[in-house]
Each structure stands twice: as structure tokens, then as C-alpha cells.
Amino acid sequence: MVRKKQLTFMFLNLIAFTVIFTIFGLIIFGQVQTTLISETDKELLAFQRMITDDNQREVSPPAYKEGRFAPRTADDRTRMMPNPRIIVLDWNENGEIMNEDQIGTLIYENYLLDYTLDPKTLDEITSVTMEESFHFRSLLFESAKDGIAYTQLLINIDAEHTVLNNFGKLLILCSFVFVILSISASYLLSKKMMKPIIQSWDKQAEFVENASHELRTPLTIIQNKLELLLAEPQEKIINRFENIALSLSETRRLSKLTSDLLTLARADSAETELAKKPMAVDEFVKRVWEPYREIAESQDKHVWLHLNSNQTIEADEIRLHQLLVILLDNAIKYTSTHDSIGVKTYVDNQKAVIEVTDTGIGIQEENIKHVFDRFYREDCARSRETGGTGLGLSIAQWIVTSHGGTISVSRNEQNGTTFKVKLPK
Ligand code: ADP
User: Fold this and answer.
1) Strand duo 406-411 + 312-315: pairing
2) What sign for the dihedral angle of Cα 97, 102, 107, 109?
């Protein structure tokens, strides 16, 4: 399914990039074309101005003498040199070219012999194609010269056409290369982006599978025990005490499991909001520790408490309580008689640190990296016996990270483990 999605994504990318590069190419091409053509059009207009200006001079010399027209400067003169690219055609009323000699026989016979006057385009700059392969821009205007009705200026733009053609080809080639490059880049990026999604998808599927498995086990036990009870309805409860006790303990397990699952599901969907309030770390730890001290002492375990934090932090007290309960529960679960359990608080780098240490069975070096994984249990049988679900430390990790802190675990030099929680102020 992921592959299919990736292919669809690539296909959509291909369309998007092609459209973007086509629009981009068209805009650039249009802009270059307009610039090139408008340059030739300017040359035509300048030439027209030069001709009409000269005619004016001839037609009304007094006006120049009277100073009604500014005299030409040296700059004007260079600008007004006849542009060698421009061909001037003088047409008479009958649509005949009058200045054949000026144009030159070569040009006249090759291009202009069949060329006819089109007075509809008067005072307009238009494109003209001759012999299907020679391109000109043309400006036709009425002439003031005797015996000449119209003057037409033609400027050859074949060079511009070649430039535009080559530029167009280059643009298509570049667009094609860039589309290919973009697609390759998007393929690699999407692969990279999909990796964590696939991982979390796999994790989610594994989680659901594990959860169903964990739920099924107690349910099967309860069902079996109840069926046994039902098979002997006349039997007294006292004689079937074990069955009932086991069903009850499995029901408790189920209830804990479902509430743990719910906590994690809410954590995943970021539904749970923390109700942070200032709280004194030492006071809080002392309060949570008290009942665990009593339990540990009742099991002949040594206990110790070193409170040196003296710090107030912003935290959700209910969640932190849950965190400490998970760590202390584990410390009790994974220690035996005469082991010791202790809690230490202190400040490190402006962070409040809570350490829960025990001298219990400890965790194997190679398993340390898995203890925060969902449903991970080093010794399944023992964990089940003590009512463990393998979700406690995952919840603990979520609580700590949602407070912006860190949790780590290490093996003690001698026996047991130490869980270290660091919380920011
Ligand atoms: P569980 O409900 O099984 O205790 P946790 O998520 O709390 O699940 O812990 C995961 C596993 O980490 C446990 O099954 C156990 O193997 C190991 N573990 C956790 N705390 C301790 C500890 N204090 N000492 C030894 N092993 C521990």
C-alpha cells in the first residue's frame, strides 16, 4: 500500500513539476520574445521619425530657420544615421514600388517582386513573412514626398528568430532535465519522509497485535475458570476458591491493561493535556514514597531516601505521581527479601533529578535499550506473575518527555538498576 501511495505521489509530482516548468518556460520565452521584437520595433519607429523629420525639413525650411524645430546635435546625427538593417519601400497610389533602384535589384527580384501593398496595416507595426522563411517587422505610413503615397519600412528579424528558436529549444531541454531532477529529488525525499511513517505504521500494527494478545490471555483464563465453575453448580465457593481468586486477579490485570492502553492511546493522539502547577519536588517524592516504604519494609527489604533537591518545578502532579508509582512498583516487583530500594533527589544543571535505585535482579546489558518499548518484558513469566503488562515504562517515558525531561536507566555496579528522571524547572 505504501508503494502504491508513493507511486501516486510521484505521478502527482510529475504533473505538478511539468505544469510549473511549462508555465515558467512560457513566461521566460514570452518575455525574451517581447524584448527582442520591441527592440526592432523601436528601430523602425526611430527610422520613421528620421524620415518624417527630413521630409519636414524639405517641405518647410522656414520653420527650421525660425527655430520651431531644435537643430540636430552630434548625438542626434549618429542616432539618425540610416539603419542598414532597414529596407525602405516607397509605394505609389497604384501599389507599385517606386524606389527599386535604391533597394537593389538583388533584394527586389528575390523578395519583393510578388510582394503587394496592404494599406489596412497603416501606422501599425506588423510581422511579415516572405518566401515562407524570411521574417520582417513592417511599418507602413503615409508619405509626404511627391508622387509617393506610402512609405514602408521593413526590418529583417531572422537573427531574432534564430535566437528565439534556439532559446526555445534550450528552454524545453532545461525544463525536461529539471523535471527529471525534481522527480528524482522528490522520489528520494519521499522515500526519506516515508521511512518514519512506515516505521510508526509498523509499530502501530505491532502494538495492536500485542494489545490483542495481551487482552486475550486473561480473557481466556477467566472464561475457562468460569466454565469450570458452571460445570459444577452445586459446588461450594470455598471449594472453588482458587478458580474465583484467579479470575479476579485476571480481571484486575485486564482492568490495568485497558487503562494503560487508554493512557498510551491518548498520549499518541496528543489528547492529554498536562495540568502543570508549581510543586516542591522533595515534598512530593516523600509523599509518594511513604506507602512504598511500608510495603518494602513489610517484605524485609532495606529502604533509604535522600532528598536534596529543594526545588520547585512546574509539573502535572497526577502524571508525576503515576511516573513515580511505575518506577517504585517495578523496584518492589523486581527485588527480593534483603534487597534495598532507595530514592534520591538532587539538582543537576538547574534540573531536578529523581533517581530510583534497587539492588534487585537487574536488567541484562543487551536488553537495556528495549525496556521503554511497549509490551517489552525481560522475563515474561515473572512480569505476569507480578501483574506487569510491559507498558509501565512506556507510559513513564511519555510522562517525562511530555514534561520536557529525560529518563534513562543504568545497571548498578553491583546489583540492580537505577532509573534517572531529569525534569526542567
Ligand atoms: P512491567 O509491567 O512488565 O513491569 P514495565 O514497562 O514497567 O513493564 O517494565 C518493562 C520491563 O523492564 C519489565 O518487564 C522488566 O523486565 C524490566 N524492568 C523494569 N524495571 C525494572 C527493575 N527495577 N529491575 C529489573 N527489571 C526491571
Assistant:
1) unpaired
2) positive
DSSP assignment of 404-424, as one string? Answer: T-EEEEEE-SSSSEEEEEEE-
- Kindly indicate the confidence band of residue 73, based on its pLDDT and cuts at 50, 70 and 90: low
Those residues whose C-beta lies under 8 Å from the C-beta of residue 379, and which sit 6 or more positions away, are 361
Look over the chain and give the mean of its residue pLDDT values, rounded to a whole number.
86
* Cell output for 391: 507498558
Ligand 1 neighbourhood includes 397 CB (under 6 angstroms): no
At 421, the amino acid letter reads V
Whole-angstrom distance, CA of residue 214 vs CA of residue 250: 11
pLDDT of res. 319 = 94
pLDDT value at residue 231: 92
Q: Is 128 helix (H, G, I), strand (E, B) or coil?
A: strand
Question: Tens digits of per-residue pLDDT, 184-232?
Answer: 888 888 888 888 888 888 888 888 888 898 899 899 999 999 999 999 8
Distance 377 CA to ligand 1 centre (A): 6
Question: Which numbered atom of ligand 1 lies nearest the CA of 379?
Answer: 16
pLDDT tens, 373-416? 988 888 777 666 777 788 999 999 999 999 999 999 999 988 89
Ligand 1 atom index nearest CA of 419: 23
Place of cell 539492588: 359
3-state SS assignment for residue 10: helix
Q: Is the minimum distance from the CB of 377 to ligand 1 under 6 angstroms?
A: yes
Residue found by looking up cell 538583388 in the block: 106
CA gap 65, 63 in Å, rounded:
5
Q: Which residues contact 277 (CB under 8 A, 6 or more apart)?
A: 314, 315, 316, 317
Distance of CA 372 from the midpoint of ligand 1 (Å):
9
